[in-house]
From TrEMBL:
Top-level lineage group: Eukaryota
Keywords of this entry: Membrane, Transmembrane, Transmembrane helix
The species this protein was found in: Sylvietta virens
Keyword Transferase annotated: no
GO BP field: membrane assembly; phospholipid homeostasis; plasma membrane organization; regulation of membrane lipid distribution
Name under which the protein is recorded: TLCD2 protein
Compartments where found: Membrane
Keyword Membrane on entry: yes
Pfam family, one: TRAM_LAG1_CLN8
């Protein structure tokens, strides 16, 4: 039994409670009242992406711990294991939330995405290895802040505003840096270190990257088409 599982369970419960109370904290505008669960879901996701001393400080962790770049298997800074466990709890909560409130044909892509993340991060939590690799993956959450803000602005019917246009530009820029470039770096690291990674873990990592890369490229194309090529 891993203590990390307690952190996962606590995180799941905390995000579940947050989800239930968000409608009081951030009341939905009239344009979003027909889809209240989605409004709560996006704000919960934004809370996870913007957690203080976690994702926003991930680049600082690599600056303060340069050894991470050389060893993403057995090396990780203090608190990194708990951070990954908290994220597993969030992705589990979001998985359950979508499964209960959204039709499968509307959410299967995100459910599939979350399944891959839960498996990969879950291995890191249980084995206390590959935590550094998971920490690199969490850099994508920096972009998720602006991705979720975009959805909130859409639901609030604020598409034709300067705020939406500015967020679209930042969203696209951070998408390239923290999603596409990060995934490319992870794929390169995995390929160069394939002899140092056990076959089972290498297979999981390779399959995960093979799934995540095209999904993120497709989403990037959708964002370009929606916000800039209409």
């Amino acid at each position: 039994f891993s203590p990390g599982l307690l952190v996962v369970a606590g995180s799941f419960a905390a995000f579940r409670l947050l989800n239930r109370g968000l409608e009081r904290l951030v009341p939905p505008p009239p344009s979003a009242r027909r889809n209240r669960w989605k409004w709560r879901n996006i704000w919960t996701s934004l809370a996870h992406s913007a957690l203080p001393d976690t994702h926003n400080l991930s680049p600082c962790r690599f600056y303060l711990h340069p050894e991470l770049s050389d060893d993403l298997v057995g090396t990780h800074p203090p608190g990194a294991h708990s951070l990954v466990a908290v994220s597993v709890g969030y992705f589990l909560e979001d998985f359950v939330d979508m499964l209960c409130n959204q039709k499968l044909h509307q959410s299967w892509e995100l459910l599939f995405h979350h399944s891959v993340v839960i498996i990969c991060f879950g291995i890191a939590v249980l084995l206390h290895q590959y935590v550094g690799f998971a920490l690199v993956a969490l850099l994508v959450e920096i972009n998720s802040i602006f991705l979720h803000l975009r959805q909130i602005l859409l639901m609030a019917n604020l598409v034709h505003t300067t705020c939406y246009r500015l967020n679209s530009l930042i969203n696209l820029g951070t998408y390239v840096v923290f999603r596409i470039a990060t995934l490319a770096w992870m794929a390169r690291w995995l390929f160069l270190n394939r002899q140092n990674v056990p076959p089972a873990a290498y297979a999981v990592g390779t399959v995960g990257m093979a799934i995540m890369t095209p999904m993120n490229v497709i989403l990037f194309y959708r964002l370009l088409r929606s916000d800039f090529f209409k």
